[in-house]
Every structure is written in structure tokens, then in C-alpha cells.
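R.M. (postdoc): so does anyone remember the format we settled on? I'll just put the C-alpha cells first.
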């Protein structure tokens, strides 16, 4: 126990003294030696690769393709059904009568026929209408999946651009820190600053190098997400356009009304209403037509008589039964209406949120622009003055930290504006 307490006291006492030395070792450790066991080949830029090519590649790998296949198959099946002249498949029946087991006077009768279920009144047109709505729903699903996939591609490319911009900025911050350390070494050798001040400069460099490693890892993550989505090993040289279209409120409202998500919800509602009309007609049994042949013999002495028969049956439906059968579809219609109204409110909320975020971002960028221009000049002056020995290390470190923080905030604001504009235009389908 005594040895343990002594060791704890030594660690507590020596930790502050060893920290500058550790930071010094980190500052002189080459970045290539950190994480050398995990290599990643950066994706090259390809001027011939367009954003449309990226989208088409992502579409081929889309996991939603089975949804489209199933939707199209259902629509085609209902379309084929609506083209038939009879409702469903026919049935074949046969009847045989004879009296050998009882009276045995020679009575014998054979009967065979085909029974067809006929369309109920207006049912065929209702079935064709449902098939048409299913075809429209399939197209709306296709548009929605493409729209959603295009948003994923936009976000992935924006993440790549964002990571690349921050990585480039951090490399400049490392260059500034390296310049500061180089000047500090010269001043230390000349006896103008102490070793502690030199270690402070090296500590700043180590911190910037650590941030550089984090941004390199973020770039790797963004590239891997891009590869997973598109399956490509190249990046387009073209960037996502983020244009402020300055649309009027009426134009925005029109674009929101025609959003593919709302069109999909409306199509779902129209299908539910068409299913209700079809179910209301299909609740009653189908009328039937039977075409058959009969052979009969009354006694052993009589000749066989062959005849052809045609019969119709018209069932009588109960209104109470029809209401019971269609109640489930009525609930489906109500749910579709609620879902549509909820999505309309969600669209309005998203639009107002994006418009407000764009306004706040624009105001912040206007304020930040003047600060960045002045601070960049201040950074150059501070580094030049420190190289000449006109300012001390503490003032220079404070200036560099303030400039880097402000420039980074400005860069983040610019990247956020790009992201907001792309989201805004994508939501409007532009």
C-alpha cells in the first residue's frame, strides 16, 4: 500500500512536467507513421464523370428495385384482368343420372357444361379504373424512389465536398503552425524565447496535426459512403449546384403542391377510393352463365335425346352485407387521407424551417465576411512580426487561434448554406 501511494504521488507530480515533452514528441512525429496499418486510396477526380452518371450508377444499385418490380407486376395483373370479358376463370361441371339401382326402367342422363362468372353491373369499368390507378401509382413510386435517391446522391457529394474543404483548411492551419514552430526554433536558438515557449508552439502544431488526422478520417468516411451508394471508384469533378432561385411565395407553393412525395400520397388515396368502388360492386355474388350439353334416355326402348342448354343466374345482394364488406376499405381511405394531410403539414414545416435557416445563415455570412477579410490580413501581419521578433509568442498564438476559429466558422457557414440551398431546391423538385 505504501509503494502504491508513493507511485501515485510521483505520477501526480511528474505529469505536468512531462506534458510538454510528450507534446514535443507528438509534434515531431510524422503523420504518415500514425495509423500506418490502415491505408485508404483516395478517390481520384474524373472530369468525364458527370453527376448524372453518378445518379445512374446509384440507381442500378438501389435496394428499392424489388418494390418497383412488385408494384409494376400488380398493375399489369389488374390491367390484364380488366381486359377480360368474363370475371375470373370458368368452371367445368358434369352430371350423370341413372336408375339401375332403383326402378331400372332404363332412365339415363348425362350432362356437361361450362359456367362463366359474368361482370357485375359497372364492375368491369371499375376494375379498369383500379388498374389505371395502379399504373399511375407505380409511376409515382418510380418518381419517388428516383427523387429520394437523387437526394441521397446530393447529400453524399455534399459530404465529400464538405470534408474536402475542411481538410484543405486544416492543411493550411498546419502550415501556419509549422511556420510558427520554425520561427520559434530560430528565436530559441538565438536566445530570444525560452524552451517552454518553444514547446508551446510545438504543442499548437501537435494539436493542428491531430485535427488534420480527424479531417482525413472524415474524408475517408465520406468517400466510403460514396462508394457504397454508387459503387464507383472515381469522383465527379463537377460539384452540386447550389443556386438561390429567389422564387415567389406562389411559385414555392406550386412546387410544394407538386412534390413527388405528396403525389405519391395522393396516388395512394386514389387507389384506395378505386378499391372501394371495386369492393362495393364485388361484394355481391357474380351473375353466372352456363352453357352445356345434355343426353337423356327415358326407357330402354326410347332413343337417346341430345340437347344444348344455356342458363343465367342473377344473385340478390344485401345492402347490409355490402356495407360490412366495404368497411375495411373505408378505413383504408380514411387512413390515406390522414397520411396525406400529415405529409402536407410536414412539407410546410420543412419549407418554413429551411427558409428561416437560409435567412439566418445569410445574415451570419454577411457579418462574417468583413471579419474574415480583416483577420486574414491580421494573421499575415502577426506571422511576419513574429518572424522579425517584433511580437512575443503569446500574442502570435492568440492571433492565430482567433483567425483560424473565425475562418473555420466562416467556412462552416458557407458549407451550410450550400447544403440548405441544395435541400431547398431538392424539396421543390428543382
Amino acid at each position: 500500500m505504501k509503494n502504491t501511494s508513493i507511485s501515485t504521488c510521483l505520477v501526480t507530480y511528474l505529469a505536468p512536467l512531462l506534458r510538454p515533452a510528450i507534446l514535443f514528441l507528438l509534434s515531431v512525429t510524422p503523420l504518415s507513421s500514425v495509423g500506418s496499418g490502415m491505408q485508404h486510396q483516395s478517390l481520384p477526380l474524373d472530369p468525364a464523370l458527370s453527376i448524372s452518371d453518378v445518379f445512374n450508377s446509384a440507381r442500378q444499385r438501389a435496394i428499392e428495385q424489388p418494390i418497383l418490380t412488385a408494384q409494376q407486376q400488380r398493375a399489369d395483373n389488374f390491367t390484364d384482368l380488366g381486359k377480360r370479358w368474363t370475371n375470373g376463370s370458368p368452371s367445368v361441371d358434369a352430371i350423370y343420372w341413372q336408375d339401375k339401382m332403383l326402378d331400372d326402367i332404363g332412365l339415363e342422363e348425362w350432362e356437361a357444361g361450362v359456367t362463366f362468372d359474368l361482370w357485375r353491373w359497372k364492375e368491369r369499368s371499375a376494375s379498369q379504373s383500379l388498374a389505371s390507378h395502379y399504373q399511375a401509382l407505380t409511376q409515382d413510386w418510380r418518381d419517388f424512389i428516383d427523387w429520394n435517391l437523387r437526394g441521397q446522391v446530393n447529400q453524399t457529394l455534399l459530404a465529400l465536398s464538405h470534408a474536402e474543404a475542411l481538410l484543405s483548411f486544416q492543411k493550411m492551419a498546419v502550415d501556419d503552425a509549422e511556420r510558427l514552430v520554425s520561427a520559434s526554433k530560430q528565436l530559441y536558438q538565438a536566445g530570444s524565447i525560452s524552451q517552454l515557449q518553444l514547446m508551446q508552439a510545438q504543442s499548437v502544431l501537435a494539436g493542428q496535426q491531430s485535427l488534420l488526422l480527424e479531417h482525413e478520417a472524415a474524408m475517408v468516411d465520406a468517400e466510403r459512403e460514396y462508394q457504397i451508394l454508387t459503387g464507383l471508384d472515381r469522383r465527379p469533378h463537377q460539384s452540386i449546384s447550389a443556386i438561390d432561385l429567389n422564387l415567389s411565395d406562389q411559385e414555392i407553393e406550386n412546387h410544394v403542391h407538386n412534390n413527388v412525395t405528396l403525389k405519391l400520397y395522393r396516388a395512394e388515396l386514389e387507389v384506395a377510393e378505386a378499391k372501394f368502388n371495386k369492393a362495393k360492386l364485388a361484394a355481391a355474388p357474380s351473375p353466372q352463365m352456363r352453357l352445356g350439353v345434355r343426353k337423356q334416355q327415358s326407357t330402354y326402348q326410347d332413343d337417346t335425346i341430345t340437347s344444348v342448354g344455356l342458363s343465367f343466374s342473377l344473385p340478390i345482394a344485401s345492402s347490409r352485407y355490402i356495407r360490412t364488406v366495404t368497411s375495411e376499405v373505408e378505413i383504408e381511405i380514411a387512413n390515406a387521407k390522414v397520411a396525406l394531410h400529415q405529409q402536407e403539414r410536414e412539407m410546410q414545416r420543412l419549407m418554413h424551417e429551411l427558409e428561416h435557416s437560409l435567412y439566418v445563415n445569410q445574415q451570419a455570412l454577411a457579418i462574417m465576411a468583413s471579419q474574415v477579410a480583416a483577420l486574414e490580413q491580421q494573421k499575415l501581419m502577426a506571422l511576419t512580426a513574429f518572424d522579425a521578433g517584433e511580437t512575443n509568442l503569446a500574442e502570435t498564438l492568440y492571433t492565430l487561434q482567433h483567425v483560424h476559429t473565425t475562418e473555420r466558422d466562416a467556412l462552416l457557414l458557407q458549407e451550410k448554406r450550400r447544403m440548405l440551398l441544395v435541400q431547398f431546391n431538392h424539396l421543390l423538385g428543382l
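R.M.: ...and that's the designed sequence above, right after the C-alpha cells. Also worth knowing: The beta strands are 45-46, 91-98, 108-117, 235-236, 288-297, 305-313. The chain is about 70% helix and 10% strand.
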